[in-house]
Write a structure and sequence with these properties.
Bound molecules: the ligand CSC[C@H]1O[C@H](OP(=O)(O)O)[C@H](O)[C@@H]1O, adenine
Number of domains: 1
CATH architecture: 3-Layer(aba) Sandwich
Structural class: alpha/beta
Radius of gyration: 18 Å
Helix content: 25-40%
CATH topology: Rossmann fold
CATH class: Alpha Beta
Shape: globular
């Protein structure tokens, strides 16, 4: 058993969480550069918590410039065991309406202008992301949402686009009709892949703000409408996050789904062929397997 530390990555509209005891904003240095902001740490219902606003307080960072590697490294470095990603998204399904939440369980990664791995020349690793979210953590988010009276959908495919512009009508229809995506956003990739590389359990709570542009009765995506829905969603998300410590508990076992052993057999580069500089950068993310 080890201490649980719940790390919440707050998306658009969610720039802090409430009710933490001993709340403190702490700057965390990482070998991958500066995280999006300082990390808010504290205790909620006896459980360690950490909160990081993905776009920084004041929403300074675009989806492309969010430092995804630094964010995941920082959370791992301070002891986070379970990452809850909270994100605004558009919906491709009539029944997934603005104001509803979706516990995402699959992704289609259409991003192309981001660093997607901690590994590379001098230390090559291949992890599985076939099942990219943690079922245990996702189940806790589902229960927390239901406990809060939120209309929540259990499972859904999130299409991660580069942005910052929203999709064209042709793209929106293709993602929905041919590709089978349920929701669309700009940030869960490479975040989910990096969390798995860092052996962190990861769940994604997508908060629907709009119907993207496919819906004949709703027209184009309009950021002013999105912001109005975002405010209500952020209040609900705070309630959801507040339920998690009781559901997850202060102590946890190894992940029964293997999220925390993702690197067990993933590193291909022979020990004597590894680049010491890269290995040093991987201290927090992969120290468990590199230092044995
Ligand atoms: C506010 S509309 C577009 C913006 O919102 C989402 O951000 P996040 O995933 O961090 O909640 C979306 O991905 C875009 O970055
Ligand atoms: N329709 C949409 N497309 C991409 N990202 C979004 N975030 C919120 N709504 C979105």
């Amino acid at each position: 058993m080890r201490d649980t530390m719940i790390g919440v990555i707050g998306g658009s509209g969610l720039y802090e969480i409430d009710g933490l005891e001993n709340a403190e904003w702490t700057r965390v240095e990482t070998p991958w550069g500066e995280p999006s902001d300082a990390v808010l740490t504290g205790i909620l219902d006896g459980v360690k918590m950490a909160f990081l606003p993905r776009h920084g307080r004041g929403h300074r960072l675009s989806p492309t410039t969010v430092p995804y590697r630094a964010n995941i490294d920082a959370l791992k470095r301070i002891g986070v065991t379970d990452v809850i990603s909270v994100s605004a998204c558009g919906s491709f399904r009539e029944e997934m309406a603005p104001g509803d939440f979706v516990i995402v369980d699959q992704f289609i990664d259409r991003t192309f202008a981001r660093e997607k791995s901690f590994f590379g020349t001098g230390c090559v690793a291949h992890i599985s992301v076939a099942l990219p979210t943690c079922p245990r953590l996702s189940a806790a988010c589902l229960t927390a949402a239901k406990d809060q009276g939120i209309t929540v959908h259990d499972g859904g495919t999130y299409l991660a686009m580069e942005g910052p512009q929203f999709s064209t009508l042709a793209e929106s229809k293709m993602y929905r009709e041919s590709w089978g995506a349920d929701v669309i956003g700009m940030t869960n990739m490479p975040e989910a892949k990096l969390a798995r590389e860092a052996e962190l359990c990861y769940a994604s709570v997508a908060m629907i703000t709009d119907y993207d542009s496919w819906h004949p009765d709703h027209g184009e995506v309009d950021v002013t409408q999105i912001i109005q829905t975002l405010m209500g969603n952020a209040t609900k998300a705070r309630g959801l996050v507040a339920r998690l410590p009781v559901l997850l508990g202060a102590q946890r076992d190894d992940c029964e789904h293997g999220c925390d052993k993702a690197l067990e057999y993933a590193i291909l580069t022979a020990p004597d062929a590894r680049d010491p500089a890269l290995v040093a950068k991987l201290d927090a993310v992969a120290g468990r397997v590199l230092n044995r």
